[in-house]
Structure formats: structure tokens, C-alpha cells
Amino acid sequence: MDLPGPTADPSALIDALKRALRRQGLTYAVVAGRMRLSEASIKRMLSRGRLSLAQLLQLAEIAGTDLAELARQAKGGTRLPRRLSIEQERALAADPRLLLLFHLLVSGRSVDEIAGDFELRGTVRTLLLARLDRLGLIELLPSDRVRLRIAQDFAWRSDGPVRRRYGAQVLREFLHDRFDGERTLLRFEVRELSEASIEILRRKLQRLSAEVTELAELDAELPSGRRRSVGVALAMRPWVFSLAEALKSKDGPATGEPGRTA
User: What highest taxon heads this organism's lineage (predicted)?
Assistant: First the structure.
């Protein structure tokens, strides 16, 4: 890569560029069309990092960013927050359409894709995007392009407004299924584990959650028609079934002590 002066690691710079393209919902085919190159050429350029400064600048412009910002992201100088403020969550919780739009943008959908699939068009779309911009969740660019101001792997506050308002409803709807389809899986295990094993299990679940986010980021460059919304619930806590609690001998050992988990 032909870059002037000291800059970020080239591979990190390419990764930052790919993330920027995904945030705009731009597929390789769309980028290839705008650069008047074949889709295979774009894939080779981005996978091998073999592109000229002119090509890098052109790709950055298509992604709605610039070389300086890409370099900052590649060097870790610009770290997007991974948690929303209480005020930001409160605003999203109060307006379902605003929350939906934000969720879809973070998931890698472009504004045009969202407008085509949902009733978020015209003035309504413009006003919602402007609100997200004022809240500091996105940067609204010309032609209704957006740049996220929050990390894609952000986490909702466990006791925040969004979970308080929608958490129970989401969980009820998610679990209201027989989980017997080809793309479903439900396993529920209740075992007695040591404190060390509980900690190992907790870390494994955390890693699996991170892998779900990584897969979503990789697939974000695919057209929306080739992606499906999938819910993944990961949970563990000290727990004893109420039936066992009711039948427990009054003279037996206490239940619910550390080490009982599900």
C-alpha cells in the first residue's frame, strides 16, 4: 500500500475501512460498481491489502469517512463507547421507531434498506435520523448516510430504561416457541458445580456472546436478503427448581448456596 509518511499498520487500516463500509451497508458488489471494477477485484484488494493511495482515498469516501479517521481507528485512537448514557437509553425506550432504527443501523443495515423494509420513509425517516444525530448516537452525513458514534458490540445497561421497558416482553416472545425447527436449539441443564467450574462456564458464555457479535460484523457486508434475524439467549444463575424446594426436607441441607447453578 502506497501511503505517505508514518501511519497505522496497513492491515489495521484495511480492517477499519471494512468496518466503515459495513456500517454503510455497502456490499462488495456495490463498491465495485462505484469504482468501476469487478467484485472479485474489490475482494482481492481488501483481503490482501494491495491498493494504491488513490484507491484507499476513493474507498474511504465511498464509506463516508476519510484517511485520517481510518488511521485513528486503526491505531486505537478513536474508541467508540460501548455503553449508552441513561439519557440516550431513555430517549430510545420512549420511542419504538427510534429504537428500531438505531438497532437496524447498528446491525449494519443502510438507511435505504431500512426505508425499503419498514415504514420509516420521507419526513419520518429524516426526523428520526436527526434525533439520533442530536442524541450523539450517529453522525448524519449528506444523502442520509450515517456514521455510528457507538460501538457495534455495545451492551444495554442491565438496569437501564430499554431493558426495563422491553426486557420482559422480549424474553416472553423469544421463549414462546417449541424450538423444534431446523434452525432452533434449546438446551437446559441443571447441575451442581464447584465455584471454579462456575467461573469457567461464565467465561465460556462470555466468549460465545462475543463470537455472536463477531459473526454479525462479518456478515454485515452481505445483502440484507441473505441475512436472517436470529435471537441467542445466554444465561446462568444460582437456581433451584421450585418443585424441589417445596419437597425439600426441613432437616436437609440449605438450598440455593453457592455452587447451585443452571
Answer: Bacteria
**End-to-end C-alpha distance for the chain, whole angstroms:** 51
Distance CA 157, CA 154 (A): 10
- How far apart CA 204 and CA 50 sit, in angstroms, is 37
Q: What is the CA radius of gyration of the chain?
A: 23
Q: Where does the pLDDT of residue 2 fall: very low under 50, low under 70, confident under 90, or very high at 90 and above?
A: very low
Q: What residues does CATH 1.10.260.40 cover in the chain?
A: 10-74
Enter the pTM of the model: 0.64
| Fold (CATH) for 80-176 | Arc Repressor Mutant, subunit A (1.10.10)
Closest CA to 244 of 192, 194, 197: 192
Q: Which three three-digit cell numbers place residue 202? A: 461464565
Q: 110-124, 181-195, 243-257 — which one is most confidently predicted on average?
A: 181-195
What residue spans in the chain does CATH classification 1.10.10 cover? 80-176
- Paired residues of 148 in beta bridges: 138
CATH number of 10-74: 1.10.260.40
- Per-chain mean pLDDT for the chain: 84
